[in-house]
Specification:
alpha+beta; Deoxyribonuclease I, Chain A; about 35% helix
């Protein structure tokens, strides 16, 4: 009798502990689900507030980049909470918001002439401390881009580029800080110009002759928005350069590590208002750890309305904290 009573008591205690733990986890899941919902709503806010570098817009911009993480978090937390309260199922469709709030994308090449020559352009942040060009060379040999924009090009890495074949036209401006730039091209490069901009962040402009078409190409690496001042400098740089490229009236591309995701306020000005649109999806490029599993898409190729996208892909690791990207474009 005592044994039976003891077993029943143990069962009741375990049941009470289980219910208590379940209630504890449910409450925490609700809190996290609400935070994820708020994070998913941030891109809606950054498009409707002033882009001045005040504390609010800067913080909203920092929060906006992690939309995929918020979406996954919402699915997990709201899904768990729905086991206790089925009303949480109504929150699950909000996980699709990142697809709706991302900056506008360049149209796909459906309906364009499949025989028209394509331009394959790559952008790769090399990382300042990366001194081995072999992973980059191996990826380029597989990807076969026509034009390669290089970010964080150091003097040591610039020397190693000489061993990479297939790009007879080159412009390199290596530096000992993270703002060295370079362009490798199979097509002739003309009118190369290096601009020194506020914040000691240079910008490289070049004119490329592609199949008889004049292409205006800009390589950029603005400051990461780690302060309100850097946030303002990044946005101003991107808006100024997209405006310049659009005013050429000719096919144009802006490529590089833009230190802004497709949900950032930087795109609210550059993409929506000024005519250059992203050509890549939402696949993360930084940090490259775990294949970018927990990363954000901050490496971009922005294109003028002359272009359509045939292909966009994130490349394999090249020894950097960024993954490279490859875009194939048609006129």
């Amino acid at each position: 009798m005592n044994c039976a009573t003891t077993a029943a008591d143990v069962w009741r205690i375990e049941s009470r502990v289980g219910r208590g733990l379940g209630l504890y986890l449910y409450r925490r899941a609700r809190i996290l689900a609400v935070l994820c919902l708020l994070g998913l709503a941030v891109p809606l806010l950054v498009r409707n507030v002033s882009l001045d570098a005040n504390l609010l817009t800067w913080l909203l911009d920092l929060i906006s980049h992690w939309q995929v993480v918020y979406a996954v978090g919402l699915l997990l937390c709201a899904g768990f909470a729905a086991c206790h309260d089925r009303r949480w199922l109504t929150a699950l469709p909000c996980a699709a918001l990142p697809f709706l709030t991302a900056a506008p994308a360049t149209p796909a090449s459906t309906g364009t002439n499949p025989q028209a020559p394509a331009l394959r352009i790559a952008s790769a942040n090399l990382h300042l401390d990366n001194t081995d060009p072999r992973p980059l060379a191996q990826w380029l040999a597989l990807a076969q881009p026509d034009v390669v924009v290089l970010i964080e090009l150091s003097p040591v890495f610039a020397q190693g580029l000489k061993a990479i074949p297939g790009y007879p036209h080159r412009i390199t401006y290596p530096r000992d800080d993270p703002f060295g730039l370079g362009i490798l091209s199979r097509y002739p490069l003309q009118s190369a110009q290096l601009l020194d901009l506020p914040g000691n962040t240079p910008l490289l402009r070049a004119v490329v002759q592609v199949h008889g078409t004049t292409l205006h190409l800009s390589a950029a690496h603005p400051m990461p928005p780690i302060s309100r001042e850097d946030f303002a400098t990044r946005n101003a740089m991107l808006q100024r350069e997209t405006r310049y490229l659009q005013h050429t009236g000719q096919p144009a591309i802006l490529a590089g590590d833009l230190n802004a995701s497709v949900w950032s306020s930087a795109f609210a000005g550059a993409g929506d208002a000024l005519g250059l649109q992203r050509t890549c999806g939402m696949a993360p490029t930084w940090p490259a750890t775990l294949g970018g599993l927990l990363g954000i898409p901050i490496d971009h190729v922005l294109a003028s309305s002359h272009w359509h996208v045939a292909e966009c892909a994130v490349g394999s690791p090249i020894g950097s904290d960024h993954l490279p990207i490859l875009v194939s474009l048609h006129m």
